[in-house]
Design brief:
By secondary structure, this protein is an alpha/beta fold. It has 13 helices and 18 strands. Helix 4 packs across helix 7 and helix 7 runs parallel beside helix 8. The strands form four sheets. Strands 1, 2, 3, 4, 5, 16, 17 and 18 form an eight-stranded mixed beta sheet that branches. It has a four-stranded parallel beta sheet with strand order 6-7-8-9. This is Dihydroorotase.
């Protein structure tokens, strides 16, 4: 493979914590030191950064291919600057055995981007019997999670964490108290009362996180909280990190850029799990992200078909697609002055790659040539019917966004170019 030189680029280097003007050379699918090149890509002063590593992507295969396939999810990822998808195990049936994982990995070959898989933590995600963590690790699982189904039995979760600790496996939890959050579809408060919708108190997240962290302290397991969305949960997270526990936390792009008032008059595209929070909570999470207390931003891409969304708000399926909108939505935080580009890219690329032990997230020589070229200032009006995802359930439909992907490269091969 001949070398390619990206010239006249604004290089967003999250490891060095800087944006610098310069060139980047790639060869044989990896970033290379300066030298001769056969192909030159003129970046025209646009930003060139490591590809996004998106943790928590839902793909409908098997069982719900009509909502999203690996092929369509991969195309959406490439169009959104996502070069690595880490897929959730909440399929139908769930990925809870090596055989199911092998099937998913075979189907994922249709995607033009890197695909890694989580496996379920308990059989059928039922919270009663631990999966064969060792066998699933050997089959390629990079983490273990029951998704939004909280393991209510503390003894079962303790056993899972203890066994995962013995194998060095990462457990991804969804911090919610299952009793308090059952049946809720919005965050409790004045808005929920005015709309007559069942709500869940932010304290449910803190209670769920406190329990999980106590078990992590008891077992020494590696733990990642998939979404921290409330100010009430942040002190517990800070204490765990200060105590030296092997704990990280993430947040979805929707909780970083939207709040409960966006639900307005029962707009079901804004129904997500956990529900959107107050503006005070949103700002607290943004601040925690800027300080490094929150480590990872993910799209939590959850495709739902029209039939499951065109229902009364309380009955509608939760979730929103995000692979194509994660970059422009995240750039809202930059344009608002909350984050700079290197800090943002550390949460989008470097930190998730490091946490899951995956390649990527760096512009250093030898790193994979997984790259995204984007114009951070390009304005556009989002039309959900132009998305590559099979499902079109985005809360940003009709929104004015700023920042467009111009090209995406995976292992040195261009997989997306804006026409």
């Amino acid at each position: 493979m001949s070398a390619t030189l990206f010239s006249n680029a604004r290089l967003v280097d999250p490891v060095a914590g800087e944006v610098r003007t310069g060139d980047l050379r790639i060869e044989n699918g990896r970033i290379a030191p300066p030298g001769p090149s056969g192909t030159v890509v003129d970046c025209r002063g646009l930003c060139l950064a490591p590809g996004i590593v998106d943790v928590g992507v839902k793909v409908g295969e098997p069982g719900e291919r009509h909502k999203e396939s690996f092929r369509t999810a991969g195309r959406a990822a490439a169009a959104g600057g996502v070069t690595t998808m880490v897929c959730r195990p909440d399929t139908r049936p769930p990925i809870d055995s090596p055989e199911m994982l092998e099937q998913a990995r075979a189907r994922a070959a249709a995607a033009p981007v890197h695909v890694y898989h989580m496996a379920a933590l308990t059989r059928a995600r039922a919270g009663s019997e631990m999966v064969e963590i060792g066998f699933l690790q050997d089959a390629g699982a990079v983490a273990f999670s029951d998704g939004v189904r909280v393991t209510a039995d503390t003894k079962v979760l303790s056993r899972c964490l203890r066994y995962a600790r013995s194998l060095g496996a990462l457990v991804i939890g969804h911090p919610q108290d299952p009793g308090l959050s059952a049946g809720a579809c919005v965050t409790s408060g004045k808005f929920a009362s005015l709309r007559g919708l069942p709500g869940v108190a932010p304290m449910a997240e803190r209670m769920g996180l406190e329990r999980d962290l106590a078990l992590v302290e008891a077992t020494g397991a590696r733990y990642h909280a998939d979404q921290i969305t409330t100010a009430a949960a942040l002190p517990a997270l800070a204490r765990a990190k200060a105590a030296g526990l092997d704990v990280t936390a993430g947040v979805s792009i929707h909780h970083l850029t939207l709040n409960v008032l966006d639900v307005a008059d029962y707009r079901t595209f804004f129904k997500v799990t956990p529900p959107l929070r107050s503006e005070d909570d949103r700002l607290a999470i943004v601040e925690a992200l800027a300080s490094g207390e929150i480590d990872i931003i993910s799209s939590m891409h959850t495709p739902q078909d029209e039939e499951s969304k065109r229902l009364p708000f309380e009955e509608a399926a939760p979730g929103a697609v995000g692979l194509e909108t994660i970059l422009p939505a995240a750039l809202r935080l930059v344009h608002a002055g909350h984050l700079d580009l290197p800090t943002l890219w550390k949460a989008l690329s470097t930190n998730p790659a490091n946490r899951l032990g995956l390649p990527g997230g760096s512009l250093a020589p030898g790193a994979p040539a997984d790259l995204v070229l984007f114009d951070p200032d390009a304005p556009f009006l989002l039309d959900r019917f132009q998305l590559a995802s099979k499902s079109k359930n985005t809360p940003f439909d009709g929104a004015r966004l700023q920042g467009r992907v111009e090209g995406t490269w995976v292992a040195g091969t261009q997989v997306f170019a804006r026409s």
